[in-house]
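2024-03-11 09:14:02 INFO worker-7 job=invfold-0412 stage=load source=structure_tokens
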């Protein structure tokens, strides 16, 4: 029998506060989201005494969340308090990773023929030069013919880049790193799941690429406002059109189309499944899914999202696989 264990520590300018009570904790991580988030839920009152947590922490307080069994704790989340709310006799502490620091205004600027790398470096120089930019593929290969920053925050700019390029953009809060990579390029650890052993609940559905004819079209406009497009894939099946509101170069359009095609065309599972707190897994991990009854379905997948729920009822992770590796 495993004993649930946890360690949640808040730090306000060097003054640390360790949480002594916990009702529930939910952590959501995804390569499709700019930020990892955590929600810490506490009872509003203990022994008829109202918790005055606001006296200890506030917006911007840093937080570390470690979860595990029997003292074997794993770093699950690091970030900052974004908000504290009370509702239905509970107190919620809503947290966000280092993206929280980028929710500040940046200078207006207009770029012409600019790389993703240059825009990201410009953001870091204005917001916090201590951050390191870790970028690959998209760095000097994907260019915008025009990119305008007007009355925007660092968050707004990163969101715009992600929407237009479909890049995986995320933070390593502890190391103060901003990551920008093509989809499925950044690789984490490896885990193994079995339908017969450690998959508790599943909505996974196995599909073959031959049954998923797909045609991808990317549309953009040039600097003169003329619409241009690139199409790849197989005719006679589903059609997917991606429209960019920013002028993209032909090279950037092709990379965007290729990334979308890979995401939607492979033999394998779609859906999600529930596992336990062990093994540890997070987005970018390679998850091997085994099925003793149907060995032909065995395969290794890129993990795109993980939602972890931790409470006195136990620890559960909902894992969503992406492409088959």
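2024-03-11 09:14:09 INFO worker-7 stage=emit residues=325
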């Amino acid at each position: 029998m495993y004993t649930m264990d946890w360690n949640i520590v808040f730090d306000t300018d060097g003054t640390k506060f360790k949480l002594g009570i916990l009702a529930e904790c939910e952590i959501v991580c995804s390569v499709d989201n700019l930020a990892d988030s955590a929600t810490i839920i506490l009872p509003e009152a203990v022994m008829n005494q109202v918790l005055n947590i606001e006296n200890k922490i506030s917006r911007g307080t840093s937080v570390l969340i470690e979860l595990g069994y029997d003292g074997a704790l794993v770093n699950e989340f690091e970030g900052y308090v974004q908000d504290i709310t009370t509702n239905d006799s509970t107190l919620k502490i809503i947290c966000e990773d280092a993206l929280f620091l980028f929710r500040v205004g940046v200078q207006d600027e207009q770029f012409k023929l600019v790389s993703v790398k240059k825009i990201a470096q410009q953001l870091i120089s204005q917001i916090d030069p201590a951050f390191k930019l870790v970028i690959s593929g998209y760095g000097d290969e994907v260019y915008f013919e025009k990119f305008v920053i007007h009355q925007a925050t660092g968050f707004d700019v990163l969101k715009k880049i992600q929407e237009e390029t479909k890049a995986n953009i995320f933070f390593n809060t502890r190391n103060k790193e901003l990551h920008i990579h093509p989809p499925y390029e950044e690789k984490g650890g490896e885990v193994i799941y079995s339908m017969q052993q450690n998959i508790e609940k599943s909505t996974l559905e196995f599909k073959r690429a031959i049954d998923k004819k797909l045609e991808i079209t990317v549309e953009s406009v040039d600097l003169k406002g003329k619409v241009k497009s690139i199409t790849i894939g197989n005719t006679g099946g589903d059609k997917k059109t991606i429209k960019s509101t920013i002028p993209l170069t032909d090279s950037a359009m092709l990379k965007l189309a290729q990334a979308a095609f890979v995401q939607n065309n492979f033999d394998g599972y779609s859906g999600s499944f529930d596992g336990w707190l062990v093994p540890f897994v997070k987005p970018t991990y390679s998850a091997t899914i085994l099925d003793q009854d149907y060995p032909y379905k065995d395969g290794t997948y890129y993990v795109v999202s993980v939602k972890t729920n931790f409470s006195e009822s136990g620890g559960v992770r909902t894992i969503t696989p992406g492409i088959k590796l």
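2024-03-11 09:14:09 INFO worker-7 stage=report msg="The mean pLDDT is 89."
2024-03-11 09:14:10 INFO worker-7 job finished
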